[in-house]
């Protein structure tokens, strides 16, 4: 079995699926065993589902529902080894995921993220514009997926500039002078999709400011819910970014705090890509069986990173479609897929708490 | 000071009846089982049964059947002594929005008790609700206009305040959160609340009797109606299935497979519910070491536990999620579940009176109803531990 150091040497987007799966099966089996020994809750869950052993393919590796991290403290290290606890974004009153990191897992997350992102960005640090307000990091209560994303990506910035003020208004003077200062250089824009749309692109349009950064690159994530509500497609988003900023390289990414590090980046052809360190499996709504290519189902994510918590195999609440394996026209190997949003919430009949929900 | 009737009228629509009596302070309760009310029920029942669309809605037909003259008279036989009683003025009912006809049962209970019944129905659209309201409007005699009042209004504390201020009894259906919300509106000092909080229910089934039963499909249908019909989310829906007898594993196999066939045929599952059930099962597994999860597709989850503990109640699920247990020796093992939250014990293959007799010595905090499998949803004037007719009326005592 390869160790993680060796795995990190695999080519991030040129490792064919068959090679990858040959590495993944023993590695994920070992991780599963490790977690079932170290986390009592995890072990008990596998026992109850009768999924403790006998994994023939990576599809047999048991998965936890991602929301379980909101309900249980799941960790595979003792408390003294917990180096950092990450939480998911959530509005007040909502339960948040709690992810326990030890030094090894935290450091592997950083190195893995670096491998994946630099494959698109290039290996040197570049001036970086964060489309958010600096207070997102200052306020410890807000320190969450948004903050973690920013901190994670900040390692790619040689100089960083926050484009939004504390009241989320655009600092257009600061932005223009930052761009001028690094004229003709590659500049990285990073932020949540909705932030970029609402507070940068629409603001620039309103102010009638266009900027031209032909070497620029945008990474954005966090989901399309709000943009789809405004009937804005990915294509429209890209073309408006190009209009206002002159940037053609615009990459959506898919990731979650429960698997920080192994993000999925959108290629030039609009498909999200699995790197050599993580994978997705699409599962049937009716029985969680693996679905064939081109069928839409629930997304399961596999990552080799989580050692300090049992999050290496998770059933998300997102739906998606794998379009092919090793055959994306962009040339990257592995699975390429798209996301079709969150699972629809279904209204439940019955007599509990109905008035209270009536108009909420 | 609550709003005046005039102000309130701007915030609600009156679907049936008139509220003018509140303004004039002309509250005139009736006696329970007043002849006018029984006649009205009978006329309404006939109007429903005659209506060509009514047959589309089984729940509407069930209601029509329940309020027909002979049925009401039969109900009144349990209340031979109540004709001396007097309805408690005005009853104000908050009906649940996710069960189409619950409002109607609450209304009838209010009327049969002799109160002026003001019922808030949800603005959520159910065709059978609309049809029933229309038929009530058409059949209601003028003399009962101030007794049968159906209103709709969006969530609004001031309107709740107004009706609460004018109510002698407030009846709140559906959920702890709703009850909390309504409790923010004060009731007059002598008035009272009847609240139907979040509860759960269980099934007790004898494996050997089940295996001898010829019509196992009928049992599956009955259980389907008890559970899946309302996403297993009604307080009457069994969340636990408790087995007794010898051939339990054989019976389980038949019982669940029969049920699964009906579920696959009739039930609409949603992916998000499948994930929810999966999570719930994992939570139980994490909390109790000896549980075993059986997934019969994502429509039907079973969690077999080796011991019943009261914390299992926190993990009850819906939309086809059952916690299963096999009795070792006696009903005493059910005791951890017999908290205040346990409402209905449904049964198959056992004797109701025997069950009651066996439970009584434990003096359980829970179990308000013992009903046969398939009939958990049947409305009764004894509901959730309340004798509604007596709760909603009073008696003048003579020494």
Plain-language structure description:
The complex is a heterodimer of chains A (360) and B (399). Chain A is an alpha/beta fold. Chain A is built from twelve helices and 14 strands. In chain A, the strands form two sheets. In chain A, strands 1, 4, 5, 6, 7, 8, 9, 10, 11, 12, 13 and 14 form a twelve-stranded mixed beta sheet that branches. In chain A, strands 2-3 form a two-stranded antiparallel ribbon. Chain A starts with a helix and ends with a helix. Chain B is α/β, with parallel strands linked by helices and 399 residues long. In chain B, the strands form four sheets. A seven-stranded mixed beta sheet of chain B has the order 10-11-12-9-8-13-14, sandwiched between helices. In chain B, strand 6, helix 9 and strand 7 form a beta-alpha-beta unit.
The N- and C-terminal alpha carbons of chain B lie at a distance of 39 Å
Mind summarizing the main beta sheet of chain B?
A: 7 strands, mixed
Radius of gyration of chain A: 21 Å
**How many angstroms separate the termini of chain A?**
52 Å
Tell the overall outline of chain B: globular
Major beta sheet, strand line-up of chain B: 10-11-12-9-8-13-14
Please provide a brief summary of the model:
Chain A has helices spanning 4-8, 17-38, 40-49, 68-71, 103-121, 135-138, 145-154, 172-181, 193-207, 225-229, 234-245, 355-358; strands at residues 64-65, 84-87, 98-101, 126-130, 157-162, 188-192, 217-221, 249-254, 264-266, 272-273, 278-283, 296-303, 313-325, 335-342. Chain A is of the alpha/beta class and 360 residues long. The termini of chain A are far apart.
């Amino acid at each position: 079995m390869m160790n993680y150091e060796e795995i990190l040497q695999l080519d991030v987007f040129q490792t064919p699926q068959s090679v990858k799966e040959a590495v993944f099966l023993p590695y994920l089996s070992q991780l599963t065993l490790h977690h079932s020994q170290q986390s009592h809750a995890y072990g008990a869950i596998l026992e109850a589902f009768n999924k403790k052993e006998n994994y023939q393919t990576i599809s047999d590796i048991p998965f936890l529902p991602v929301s379980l991290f909101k309900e249980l403290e799941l960790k595979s290290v003792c408390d003294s080894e917990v180096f950092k606890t990450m939480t998911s974004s959530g509005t007040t009153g909502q339960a948040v995921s709690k992810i326990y990191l030890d030094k090894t897992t935290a450091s592997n997350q950083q190195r893995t993220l670096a491998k994946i992102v630099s494959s698109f960005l290039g290996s040197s640090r570049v001036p970086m514009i964060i489309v958010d307000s600096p207070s997102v990091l200052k306020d410890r209560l807000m320190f969450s997926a948004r903050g973690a994303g920013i901190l994670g990506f900040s390692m790619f910035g040689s100089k960083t500039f926050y484009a939004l003020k504390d009241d989320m208004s655009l600092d257009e003077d600061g932005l223009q002078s930052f761009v001028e200062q690094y004229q003709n250089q590659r500049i990285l824009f990073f932020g949540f999709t909705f932030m970029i749309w609402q507070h940068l692109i629409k603001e620039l349009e309103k102010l009638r400011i266009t900027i031209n950064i032909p070497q620029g690159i945008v990474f954005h994530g966090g989901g399309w819910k709000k943009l789809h509500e405004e009937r804005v497609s990915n294509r429209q988003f890209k073309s408006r970014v190009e209009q206002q900023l002159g940037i053609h390289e615009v990459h959506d990414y898919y990731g979650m705090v429960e698997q920080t590090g192994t993000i999925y980046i959108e290629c030039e052809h609009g498909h999200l890509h699995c790197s050599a360190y993580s994978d997705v499996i699409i599962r049937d709504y009716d029985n969680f069986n693996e679905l064939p290519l081109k069928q839409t189902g629930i997304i399961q994510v596999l990552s080799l990173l989580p050692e300090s918590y049992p999050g290496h195999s998770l059933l998300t609440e997102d739906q998606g479609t794998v379009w092919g394996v090793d055959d994306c026209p962009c040339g990257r190997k592995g699975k390429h897929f798209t996301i079709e949003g969150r699972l629809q919430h279904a209204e439940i009949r019955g007599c509990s708490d109905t008035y209270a929900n009536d108009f909420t | 000071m609550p709003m005046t009737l005039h102000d309130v009228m701007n915030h609600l629509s009156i679907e049936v009846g008139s509220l003018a009596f509140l303004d004039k302070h002309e509250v005139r309760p009736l006696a329970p089982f007043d002849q006018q009310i029984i006649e009205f029920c009978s006329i309404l029942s006939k109007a429903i049964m005659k209506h060509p669309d009514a047959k589309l809605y089984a729940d509407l037909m069930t209601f029509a059947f329940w309020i027909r003259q002979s049925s009401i008279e039969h109900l009144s036989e349990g209340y031979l002594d109540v004709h001396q009683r007097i309805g408690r003025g005005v009853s104000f009912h908050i009906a649940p929005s996710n069960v189409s006809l619950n409002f109607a049962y609450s209304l009838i209970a209010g009327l049969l008790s002799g109160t002026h019944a003001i019922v808030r129905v949800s603005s959520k659209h159910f065709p059978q609700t609309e049809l029933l309201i229309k038929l009530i409007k058409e059949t209601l005699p003028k003399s009962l206009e101030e007794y049968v009042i159906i209103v709709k209004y969006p969530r609004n504390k001031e309107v709740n305040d107004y009706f609460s201020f004018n109510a002698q009894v407030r009846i709140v259906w559906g959920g702890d959160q709703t009850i909390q919300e309504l409790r923010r509106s004060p009731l007059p000092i002598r008035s009272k609340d009847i609240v139907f909080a979040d509860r759960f229910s269980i099934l007790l089934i004898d494996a050997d009797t089940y295996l001898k039963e010829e019509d196992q499909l009928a049992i599956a249908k009955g259980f389907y109606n008890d559970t899946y019909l309302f996403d297993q989310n009604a307080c009457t829906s069994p969340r636990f299935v408790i087995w007794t007898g010898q051939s339990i594993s054989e019976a389980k196999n038949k019982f669940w497979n029969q049920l699964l066939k009906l579920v696959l045929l009739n039930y609409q599952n949603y992916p998000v519910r499948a994930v929810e059930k999966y999570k719930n099962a994992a939570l139980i597994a994490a909390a109790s070491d000896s549980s075993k999860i059986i997934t019969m597709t994502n429509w039907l989850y079973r969690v077999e536990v080796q011991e019943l503990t009261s914390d299992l109640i926190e993990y009850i699920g819906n939309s086809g999620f059952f916690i299963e247990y096999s009795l070792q020796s006696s009903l005493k093992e059910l005791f951890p579940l017999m908290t205040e939250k346990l409402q209905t014990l449904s049964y198959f293959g056992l004797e109701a009176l025997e069950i009651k007799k066996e439970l009584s010595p434990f003096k359980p905090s829970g179990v308000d109803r013992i009903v046969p499998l398939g009939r958990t949803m049947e409305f009764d004037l004894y509901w959730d531990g309340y004798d509604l007719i007596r709760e909603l009326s009073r008696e003048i005592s003579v020494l």
